[in-house]
Amino acid sequence: MTTMRASFDRAADLRAETGVIDRLRAEPTTTVIAVRDGRVRIDGDDLGHATLLRVAAGAIGEATWALLGRDARGDAVLLAALDAESDTVDTAPDETWLGLRDIGARLGTEDSEILVEALALGGWLNDARFCPTCGGGTELLQAGWSRRCLVCGREHFPRTDPAVIVAIESADGERLLLGANANWGGRMYSCFAGFTEAGESLETTVHRELAEEAGVRLASLRYVSSQPWPFPRSLMLGFRAVAEDEHEVRPDGEEIIDVRWFTRAEIGTALAGDGPVGLPGPASIARSLITSWYEEGA
Fold first, then answer.
1. Three-state SS annotation for the chain
2. Under a CB-based contact definition with an 8 Å cutoff, are residues 138 and 153 in contact?
3. Who's near 122: CB < 8 A, 6+ residues apart?
4. Which are the contacts of 162, defined by CB distance < 8 A and separation ≥ 6?
């Protein structure tokens, strides 16, 4: 398993500095990523290789501010979390606001990290304005990375909810089991996923979710990699597993309406966009798990 090192410096050392946001907003080299309703703008019109649109701090009107970090040049990158109806990016070109699923796979490594961080933190800044304990108003601390209640004094931080996602193969390694979620209307098949419950390990989550959704018992299980997925605050932990009995699979009929074994040839055709079914988009870890399995035997 390859360990990925972050390419974007989150500059946690600056978060405790008093007035750091105001100081950085005044620096001419600082750039800003504006987030509105889970979307950002891109720079340029070539969606084949997009870059995030960064604007000067002076181009932003009313917003909730936070520090994202330092880019490869060492310059500060700030987040401006806008209200859903806001239109305060005064000097921005007229690109369409786009989300992670639209542009995530088209961005470079640094921009991808900035995008996911900005969407996750921006969502929290807009959704968690009040104390969940007493309902009081809050003030921002740590350059936008925590809130302190002005009534009860409790400090709150952005949440991350762990979820597992699993690619299941047959004992001979030649077929992959995928499921169709009811929300997709049978148009797309993907790996199986579910949230970790309170007091539950990741391994237990995998076994429970697969038994519930697809009636599958697992003979083996291994961790592969993870992906932050800000919808709204998930961390997807990817696994590969081998089914103990490939004949006992069945959909739960509620969340999963169909389960199906796919040959490597069928997966290759689907990855090329030619069927037999649709697969997850290229920005998702589900796509990565499926592609990795396919390429091992291609």
1. CCCCCCCCECCHHHCCCCCHHHHHHHCCCCEEEEEECCEECEECCCHHHCEECCECHHHECCCEEEEEEECCCCCEEEEEEECCCCCCECCCCCCCCECHHHHHHHCCHHHHHHHHHHHHHHHHHHHCCECCCCCCEEEEEHHHCEEEECCCCCEECCCCEEEEEEEEECCCCCEEEEEEEHHHCCCECECEEEECCCCCCHHHHHHHHHHHHHCCCEEEEEEEEEEEECCCCEEEEEEEEEECCCCCCCCCCCCEEEEEEEEHHHHHHHHCCCCCCECCCCCCHHHHHHHHHHHHHC
2. no
3. 35, 38, 66, 79, 81
4. 195, 196, 202, 234, 235, 237
- Report the Cα 59 to chain-centroid distance in Å: 27
**Token code pair at residue 14:** 């600056």
How is residue 52 written in tokens?
């995030």
Local confidence pLDDT in tens for the 298 residues of the chain = 334 556 899 999 999 999 999 999 999 999 999 999 999 998 865 556 788 999 999 999 899 999 999 999 999 999 999 987 665 555 454 457 889 988 888 888 899 999 999 999 999 999 999 999 999 999 999 999 999 999 999 999 999 999 999 999 999 999 999 999 998 887 899 999 999 999 999 999 999 999 999 999 999 999 999 999 998 899 999 999 999 999 999 999 999 999 999 999 999 999 999 977 999 999 999 999 999 999 998 7
